[in-house]
Amino acid sequence: MSGRNSNRRMAMAGLAVALPLLAFGTAIPAVSQTLSQGARPATSSAEEIARFCGNIADAARDRRYQLQKMELEKLQADIDERIEKLEAKRAEYEVWLTRRNRFMQQAQEAVVGIYANMRPDAAASQLGELRAETAAAILMSLDTRKASVILNEMQVETAASLTGIMVNAARKKDPS
Predict the structure, then answer these.
(1) Three-class DSSP category at 27
(2) What b/e readout covers 54-88, taking b as 16+ CB neighbours within 10 angstroms?
(3) Is 110 exposed, middle or buried (0-12, 13-18, 19+ CB in 10 A)?
(4) pTM
(5) Nearest-CA neighbor of 60 among 23, 7, 12?
């Protein structure tokens, strides 16, 4: 009786493996034949069960590989979609940056033009009130004759400070 129970357990184990494979759509003739004839645990031998399990092992492995491949394809599609979105954002930011730089260039040219048309004493007093880096940048953008006349009208300490900034900005190498 013990041998019959052992055969029955093995047959049930084979069915437990075969049923999930059928649920995934794997059609194996041996499985469908076994299920259509009904399980015969009493007459099945251990060798027959081992052969059955060996036969479905390749199909189970193939199905597992198919599922992994489908998951990888899904992940690849998600990555590709994200890359497209990032490229669109990058292009949007490039357009924005180009517009900003164009605006900044026009604004700088306008400011330089304003100071170029001012009286030297008025320009000197106004540049003296600005941040030193800003004033030096404006002076560097002006015609050298106009800049020298404005510097001449400034207080000595302010003119020396601005001149130092302009010299450092004109250097080719970083002194540090």
Answers:
(1) coil
(2) eebeebbeebeeeeeeeeeeeeeeeeeeeeeeeee
(3) exposed
(4) 0.46
(5) 23
Q: Measure the CA–CA gap between 147 and 152, rounded to whole angstroms.
A: 9
3-state SS record for 102-136? HHHHHHHHHHHHHHHHCCHHHHHHHHHHCCHHHHH
- What is the radius of gyration, based on Cα positions, of the chain? 42
Instruction: Using DSSP, state whether 26 is helix, strand or coil.
Output: coil
Instruction: For 8-67, write each residue's pLDDT tens digit.
Output: 555 555 555 554 544 444 444 544 455 455 555 545 688 888 888 888 888 888 999 999
**Residue spans per domain, the chain:** 2-76, 78-170
CATH for 78-170 is 1.10.220
Length of the chain: 176
